[in-house]
């Protein structure tokens, strides 16, 4: 059984490496072409950023493969020998927490390089070491408190229910829904500064747009995202009574009112088309498959890892191998997502205009330095959104002539 999972991980590793090399080679060739979508200087800069980021991903992938071999070879066995706790739920908390913390510490150099070297170089990151440490401490506290409670809960279910994977799925699915409901509140209280829009004219226009499509929210807020990053973004956060519209201050600063409304119209398209519920359904199905697989493993796998078939081991094995299953399911999920993005673009352009949405996407691409071209295989595995050039084509905009089709 262990051999099957190891082979799957090796395939996962090989595909990751191959697609990264294909992407780097593709961008190196594409950067020599005439600039499209981006301004010429930003086209070159975006290609450099994309290549450097992919090289960092390559190094991280190799590093993760080495860590995987160490963990299954002797790491888990060694960690188990240090933790001599009889109480099953307490052992699960300590073992899994330590496993996650050790992995985070070992991966910290890559995070630090990405944040303070790569993203600083391309003028994305504004975060200071003090703010990084502050964010890390807060995140650590949330993980140790609430993460440990979730681990204890799933350990209890594993220990006390024969068909634990069914009840475990229900429990974790409910936790994820709760996290989505509380996410904007937690961000507001612990990480970001949420404020009502100072531009009352913009706020009135957004409220009118929300009323037009029947989207009920608890408010429209601007968040001080620029203290960490210069990239532009917006999102609808929360569920039910916590649902709110959140605009990055960078987005409010760079986009006109009409362009902002076009971006929000796109997001409202997801709401109107039921994409949020569809995504929850897809996530639930994927999780159910995961729990069905990991809930029916035999003792052979755990013997191969020198672990007992107990809650702490089952949770850890889930954490180690679930990313592999996710990776091979992602092409199908991404295909569905890309289809939904086209529909959301259509809805957003009808709420505003195609010109406003195209102008907004052009500004987002330039400000975020998003290289507009990618290798088809890379798109197949990693793109949840269609390439910009394809989105523009659907909107009737020719990126070469910078004109809209007469038929649109």
Number-wise, the strands total 6
- What is the typical, i.e. mean, pLDDT? 89
How much strand content do the residues show?
under 5%
Task: Please compute the radius of gyration using only Cα atoms.
Answer: 23 Å
Report the structural category: mainly alpha
Major pleated sheet: 4 strands, mixed
Order of helices and strands: HHHHHEHEEEHHHHHHHHEE
Number of helices: 14
Helix content: over 70%
Distance between the termini: 56 Å
Low-pLDDT runs: none
Shape: globular
Please describe the topology of this protein.
Layout: H1 2-30, H2 40-82, H3 88-121, H4 129-160, H5 164-191, E1 194-196, H6 200-213, E2 220-223, E3 234-237, E4 244-248, H7 249-254, H8 257-272, H9 275-294, H10 299-304, H11 311-351, H12 354-367, H13 376-382, H14 388-394, E5 397-398, E6 403-404
Parallel strand pairs: 2-4
Antiparallel strand pairs: 1-2, 3-4, 5-6
Helix pairs in contact: 1-2, 1-11, 2-3, 3-4, 3-11, 4-5, 5-9, 6-8, 8-11, 8-12, 9-11, 11-12
């Amino acid at each position: 059984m262990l051999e099957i999972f190891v082979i799957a991980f090796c395939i996962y590793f090989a595909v990751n490496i191959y697609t990264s090399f294909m992407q780097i080679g593709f961008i190196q060739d594409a950067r020599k072409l005439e600039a499209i979508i981006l301004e010429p200087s930003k086209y070159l800069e975006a290609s450099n950023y994309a290549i450097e980021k992919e090289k960092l991903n390559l190094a991280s992938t190799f590093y993760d493969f080495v860590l995987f071999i160490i963990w299954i070879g002797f790491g888990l066995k060694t960690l188990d020998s240090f933790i001599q706790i009889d109480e099953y739920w307490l052992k699960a908390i300590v073992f899994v927490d330590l496993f996650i913390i050790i992995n985070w510490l070992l991966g910290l150099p890559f995070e630090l390089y990405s944040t303070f070297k790569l993203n600083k170089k391309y003028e994305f990151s504004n975060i200071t070491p003090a703010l990084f440490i502050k964010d890390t401490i807060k995140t650590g506290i949330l993980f140790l408190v609430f993460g440990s409670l979730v681990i204890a809960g799933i350990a209890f279910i594993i220990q006390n229910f024969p068909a634990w994977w069914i009840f475990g799925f229900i429990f974790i699915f409910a936790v994820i829904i709760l996290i989505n409901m509380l996410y904007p509140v937690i961000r507001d209280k612990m990480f970001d500064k949420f404020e009502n829009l100072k531009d009352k004219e913009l706020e009135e226009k957004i409220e009118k747009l929300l009323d037009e499509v029947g989207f009920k929210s608890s408010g429209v807020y601007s968040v001080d995202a620029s203290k960490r990053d210069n990239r532009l973004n917006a999102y609808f956060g929360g569920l039910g009574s916590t649902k709110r519209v959140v605009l990055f201050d960078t987005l409010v600063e760079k986009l006109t009112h009409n362009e902002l409304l076009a971006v929000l119209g796109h997001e409202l398209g997801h709401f109107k088309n039921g994409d949020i519920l569809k995504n929850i359904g897809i996530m639930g199905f994927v999780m159910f498959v995961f729990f069905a697989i990991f809930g029916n493993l035999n003792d052979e796998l755990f013997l191969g890892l020198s672990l007992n078939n107990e809650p702490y081991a089952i949770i850890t094995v889930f954490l180690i191998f679930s990313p592999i299953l996710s990776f091979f399911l992602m092409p199908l999920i991404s295909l569905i997502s890309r289809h939904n993005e086209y529909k959301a673009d259509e809805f957003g352009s009808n709420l505003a205009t195609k010109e406003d949405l195209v102008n907004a996407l052009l500004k987002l691409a330039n400000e975020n330095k998003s290289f507009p071209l990618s290798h088809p295989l890379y798109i197949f595995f990693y793109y949840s959104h269609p390439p910009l050039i394809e989105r523009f084509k659907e909107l009737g905009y020719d990126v070469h002539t910078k004109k809209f089709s007469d038929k649109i």
